[in-house]
Amino acid sequence: MTVSSSCRFSSPPKRERIQVEARKSVLGEDKQPTQNPDLINAAFPLSRPTWDYNSAEELLFSLQMLQRAHEQVWPKLKALYETGSPPDPHRYRPGDWVYVQRHQQQALQPRWKGPYVMIMTTPTALKVHGITPWVHYTHVRPADPHAVLKDFVPEWKSQPDKDNPLKLRLRPSHLPR
Questions:
Q1: Which domains does the chain carry?
Q2: What pTM value is reported for the model?
Q3: Taking the mean position of all CA atoms in its chain, how far away is CA 88?
Protein backbone atom coordinates (compact mmCIF):
# COMPACT_ATOMS: atom_id res chain seq x y z
CA MET A 1 0.00 0.00 0.00
CA THR A 2 1.39 3.37 -0.89
CA VAL A 3 1.16 6.43 1.30
CA SER A 4 -1.10 8.09 -1.22
CA SER A 5 -3.58 5.21 -1.14
CA SER A 6 -3.59 5.07 2.65
CA CYS A 7 -4.33 8.81 2.82
CA ARG A 8 -7.16 8.84 0.31
CA PHE A 9 -9.50 10.44 2.84
CA SER A 10 -7.13 13.34 3.51
CA SER A 11 -7.11 16.62 1.65
CA PRO A 12 -4.48 16.91 -1.13
CA PRO A 13 -2.20 19.36 0.79
CA LYS A 14 -2.33 17.18 3.89
CA ARG A 15 -1.71 14.06 1.79
CA GLU A 16 1.38 15.66 0.23
CA ARG A 17 2.69 16.72 3.64
CA ILE A 18 2.21 13.20 5.01
CA GLN A 19 3.96 11.71 2.00
CA VAL A 20 6.93 14.11 2.32
CA GLU A 21 7.29 13.32 6.04
CA ALA A 22 7.02 9.57 5.39
CA ARG A 23 9.68 9.75 2.69
CA LYS A 24 12.00 11.57 5.13
CA SER A 25 11.75 8.69 7.60
CA VAL A 26 13.15 5.97 5.28
CA LEU A 27 16.19 4.36 6.90
CA GLY A 28 19.36 3.36 5.08
CA GLU A 29 21.76 0.48 5.80
CA ASP A 30 23.20 2.42 8.77
CA LYS A 31 19.69 2.64 10.33
CA GLN A 32 19.74 6.43 9.90
CA PRO A 33 17.40 8.51 7.67
CA THR A 34 18.70 8.29 4.12
CA GLN A 35 18.82 10.65 1.14
CA ASN A 36 19.21 7.78 -1.36
CA PRO A 37 16.35 8.28 -3.87
CA ASP A 38 16.33 4.59 -4.87
CA LEU A 39 15.68 3.47 -1.29
CA ILE A 40 13.10 6.20 -0.75
CA ASN A 41 11.22 5.36 -3.96
CA ALA A 42 11.33 1.65 -3.12
CA ALA A 43 9.78 2.32 0.30
CA PHE A 44 7.28 5.00 -0.76
CA PRO A 45 6.67 5.00 -4.51
CA LEU A 46 5.21 8.18 -5.95
CA SER A 47 2.99 6.24 -8.33
CA ARG A 48 0.72 3.31 -7.70
CA PRO A 49 2.43 0.04 -8.75
CA THR A 50 0.86 -2.04 -11.50
CA TRP A 51 1.11 -5.44 -9.90
CA ASP A 52 -0.17 -8.56 -11.54
CA TYR A 53 -1.04 -10.78 -8.61
CA ASN A 54 -1.40 -13.76 -10.93
CA SER A 55 2.35 -13.96 -11.61
CA ALA A 56 4.62 -15.74 -9.15
CA GLU A 57 7.32 -13.06 -9.34
CA GLU A 58 4.96 -10.27 -8.34
CA LEU A 59 3.49 -12.35 -5.54
CA LEU A 60 6.97 -13.18 -4.25
CA PHE A 61 7.97 -9.51 -4.44
CA SER A 62 4.84 -8.51 -2.50
CA LEU A 63 5.57 -11.06 0.20
CA GLN A 64 9.19 -9.89 0.45
CA MET A 65 8.06 -6.28 0.87
CA LEU A 66 5.57 -7.35 3.52
CA GLN A 67 8.32 -9.31 5.31
CA ARG A 68 10.62 -6.27 5.20
CA ALA A 69 7.91 -4.04 6.66
CA HIS A 70 7.24 -6.64 9.35
CA GLU A 71 10.96 -6.80 10.24
CA GLN A 72 11.06 -3.02 10.65
CA VAL A 73 7.89 -2.70 12.71
CA TRP A 74 8.08 -5.77 14.95
CA PRO A 75 11.13 -4.74 17.07
CA LYS A 76 9.49 -1.39 17.81
CA LEU A 77 6.24 -3.08 18.87
CA LYS A 78 8.14 -5.63 20.95
CA ALA A 79 10.07 -2.88 22.75
CA LEU A 80 6.84 -1.01 23.39
CA TYR A 81 5.14 -4.00 25.01
CA GLU A 82 8.20 -5.14 27.00
CA THR A 83 8.48 -1.89 28.94
CA GLY A 84 6.63 -3.46 31.86
CA SER A 85 3.11 -3.66 33.08
CA PRO A 86 0.91 -0.69 32.28
CA PRO A 87 0.08 1.67 35.12
CA ASP A 88 -3.24 1.42 36.91
CA PRO A 89 -5.52 3.55 34.72
CA HIS A 90 -7.65 4.95 37.52
CA ARG A 91 -7.82 5.02 41.29
CA TYR A 92 -11.51 4.20 41.74
CA ARG A 93 -12.60 1.03 43.54
CA PRO A 94 -16.03 -0.52 44.18
CA GLY A 95 -17.64 1.18 47.15
CA ASP A 96 -16.16 4.61 46.40
CA TRP A 97 -18.48 7.60 46.07
CA VAL A 98 -18.23 9.63 42.86
CA TYR A 99 -19.88 12.50 41.05
CA VAL A 100 -20.71 11.90 37.38
CA GLN A 101 -20.22 14.65 34.81
CA ARG A 102 -23.38 15.99 33.21
CA HIS A 103 -22.84 16.37 29.45
CA GLN A 104 -26.04 18.25 28.62
CA GLN A 105 -26.18 20.83 31.33
CA GLN A 106 -29.34 22.95 31.64
CA ALA A 107 -29.29 26.55 32.85
CA LEU A 108 -28.39 26.85 36.55
CA GLN A 109 -27.90 23.10 36.79
CA PRO A 110 -24.73 21.77 38.46
CA ARG A 111 -22.09 20.30 36.18
CA TRP A 112 -21.81 17.15 38.29
CA LYS A 113 -24.63 14.86 39.42
CA GLY A 114 -24.49 12.55 42.37
CA PRO A 115 -22.95 11.37 44.57
CA TYR A 116 -23.25 7.78 43.39
CA VAL A 117 -21.70 4.67 44.85
CA MET A 118 -19.50 2.67 42.52
CA ILE A 119 -20.48 -0.97 42.01
CA MET A 120 -17.96 -2.36 39.50
CA THR A 121 -14.90 -1.19 37.58
CA THR A 122 -12.96 -2.13 34.48
CA PRO A 123 -9.62 -0.59 33.46
CA THR A 124 -11.46 2.20 31.62
CA ALA A 125 -15.08 2.28 32.79
CA LEU A 126 -17.10 2.39 36.00
CA LYS A 127 -20.56 1.07 36.85
CA VAL A 128 -22.31 3.32 39.34
CA HIS A 129 -25.56 2.60 41.14
CA GLY A 130 -28.46 4.57 39.69
CA ILE A 131 -27.04 5.09 36.19
CA THR A 132 -27.72 2.37 33.62
CA PRO A 133 -24.81 2.83 31.18
CA TRP A 134 -21.18 2.38 32.13
CA VAL A 135 -19.30 5.65 32.67
CA HIS A 136 -15.75 6.34 31.45
CA TYR A 137 -13.42 6.98 34.37
CA THR A 138 -12.49 10.44 33.05
CA HIS A 139 -16.13 11.52 33.43
CA VAL A 140 -16.24 11.06 37.20
CA ARG A 141 -14.62 12.75 40.16
CA PRO A 142 -14.36 11.49 43.72
CA ALA A 143 -16.91 12.56 46.29
CA ASP A 144 -16.05 13.15 49.93
CA PRO A 145 -17.35 10.04 51.74
CA HIS A 146 -17.81 12.02 54.98
CA ALA A 147 -20.08 14.53 53.23
CA VAL A 148 -22.51 11.81 52.09
CA LEU A 149 -25.63 11.76 54.22
CA LYS A 150 -26.27 8.61 56.24
CA ASP A 151 -29.80 8.42 54.78
CA PHE A 152 -28.29 8.24 51.31
CA VAL A 153 -26.05 5.23 52.00
CA PRO A 154 -27.96 2.09 50.95
CA GLU A 155 -27.61 -1.33 52.53
CA TRP A 156 -26.79 -3.97 49.94
CA LYS A 157 -28.04 -7.54 49.67
CA SER A 158 -26.75 -10.26 47.40
CA GLN A 159 -29.03 -13.00 46.14
CA PRO A 160 -28.08 -16.04 44.09
CA ASP A 161 -29.50 -16.11 40.59
CA LYS A 162 -32.19 -18.76 40.18
CA ASP A 163 -30.98 -19.85 36.72
CA ASN A 164 -27.20 -19.64 37.10
CA PRO A 165 -25.57 -20.56 40.45
CA LEU A 166 -22.38 -18.67 39.46
CA LYS A 167 -24.22 -15.33 39.27
CA LEU A 168 -25.10 -13.06 42.17
CA ARG A 169 -27.71 -10.33 42.05
CA LEU A 170 -26.72 -7.18 43.94
CA ARG A 171 -29.44 -4.73 44.96
CA PRO A 172 -30.10 -2.20 47.68
CA SER A 173 -32.02 -3.77 50.56
CA HIS A 174 -34.78 -1.14 50.50
CA LEU A 175 -35.89 -2.22 46.98
CA PRO A 176 -38.49 -5.00 46.66
CA ARG A 177 -37.56 -8.31 45.07
A1: 3-81 (no CATH), 97-172 (2.30.30)
A2: 0.44
A3: 15
